[in-house]
Amino acid sequence: MSPRSLWVLFTSPTPKKDPRLQEARKYDLDPRFLQFSGGQTEWRSSNLALQHGLGSPEPFFVDEELTLSKAFSSSMRPTKIIPYLYRATARFDQDDITITTLVTTSRFQAFSRMVERYQGPISVTIHVGNSTSEIRSLLKSLRALYLSSKSMATYVDVHLVIDAFDRQFNTWRNIARLFARTDYVMMLDVDFYLCTDFRTAMRNSWHIMHQLRDGNAAFVIPAFEYVKYADGVDHRIFPKDKRTLLGLVKSKRLGMFHASWAPGHNSTDYKRYYAAPPGDVYKVTQYQSAYEPYVIFKKDGPPWCDERFIGYGGNKAACLFEMYISGISYFVLADHFIIHQSHRYEEAARRNEVRLRT
User: Fold this and answer.
1) pLDDT in tens, 211-260
2) What is the pLDDT of residues 70-103, one digit of tens each?
3) Average pLDDT over all residues of the chain
4) Number of Cβ atoms within 10 Å of the Cβ of 16
5) How far is CA 283 from CA 217, 280, 286, 294, in A?
6) Which domains, from first to last, does the chain contain?
7) Is there a contact between 81 and 161 (Cβ–Cβ < 8 Å)?
8) Which residues face 103 on adjacent strands?
9) What does 248-299 look like in DSSP terms, one character per residue?
10) Of 133-147, 179-193, 205-219, where does mean pLDDT reach its minimum?
11) Of the candidates 138, 119, 122, which has an alpha carbon nearest to the alpha carbon of residue 130?
12) What span, in angstroms and rounded, lies between the C-alpha atoms of 135 and 127?
């Protein structure tokens, strides 16, 4: 079958013996997925109304497609969002921390490392173009990835986005956050390696969890990268404790992530981080609008990322700045860090999109 727009492909009735149904079963998918039938959102009368003999005990159903179109109405359309294409088998504590991230097929290997390292809840948005050939290829690769380890099926919820629009990063971030199944989330790029166990440390701290529950704090995990590209390829040699990290910083092998663009991370105040005593948590006092750290915060309450920001440059910074001006304070966890795994960027696309903005 030649690549065609799925929006055209699925407007006609599906024959009973359509080979696409067999293909859906091959990839462990509900055949209705290929017809884009979706599900329904259930709404019930409030308990207060029912206690007074008002309302109705019968639920009212709203088409899932309609609900999602309203939830992401600022995004480019048409688009198809499929929550929980794959759903993790584990049950998560509400006070756990879900990593929310975005993945393309080229970064599946890095994503697999994140899953194996974290061993906790992850909510991931995966985008694919709306052509039959692209979807077939993606589903095949995704199924292989999901079956590649027990951890993948145990901890990862996968949400699929099908449309013709590349790099709607803030929309994809919002999808991963909306469908996370814990009260707290971490906004993280897939290329970072989790060097320290910040999750356990945070959950064991009454003070930190109290701040998270209040919803007025976001916690920064400082980001680093190797000065030489080749040094950052093999995650197995990355430091696992701050003492080793500081030695690499002192020898100038490791430094602030994207040091060439200082506004992106310098509000973390790396000099203070290097000198901080064990267990220290300090407040970010020099916030500026280009700051884009990797943060943990309450899922419900902080502003959502503005979906009108698309493409490379400024989308995450805009999201975090809106959180900041809404009243959220940022705090740095001085015992912890993440390190970027070296990979080649799509520099041509980046340069072109930045040029169009200037």
Assistant:
1) 999 999 999 999 999 999 999 999 999 999 999 999 999 999 999 999 98
2) 888 888 888 889 999 999 999 999 999 999 999 9
3) 86
4) 6
5) 10, 10, 9, 15
6) 60-357 (3.90.550.10)
7) yes
8) 126
9) HHHTTSEEETTTTSGGGTGGG-HHHHHHPPTT-EEE--S--TT----EEEES
10) 133-147
11) 138
12) 10
Residue 18 vs residues 15, 139, 140, 143: alpha-carbon distances, Å: 5, 18, 19, 22
List pLDDT tens digits, range 262-317: 889 999 999 999 999 999 999 999 999 999 999 999 999 999 999 988 877 678 99
Q: What sign has the CA pseudo-torsion 150, 154, 155, 159? A: positive
- Residue 282's region, left for phi above 0, alpha for psi from -120 to 50, else beta, is beta
Which pair of structure tokens corresponds to residue 213?
């529950």
How many whole angstroms separate alpha carbon 291 and alpha carbon 219? 14
Helix (H) / strand (E) containing 339: strand 338-340
Give the DSSP letter of residue 16. T
pLDDT at 352 over 60: no
* Strand 122-128, strand 97-103: pairing: parallel
Angle between helices 315-325 and 169-178 (to 10 degrees): 50
Residues 351, 316: Cα–Cα separation, whole Å: 17
What proportions of the chain, in percent to the nearest 5, are helix, strand and coil?
40, 20, 40
Indicate the length of the chain as a whole number: 358
Which tokens hold the place of 59? 């639920």
Nearest residue to 40 (alpha-carbon basis) of 64, 68, 66 = 64
CA 222/CA 200 separation, integer angstroms: 17
Nearest to 62 by CA among 77, 41, 44: 41
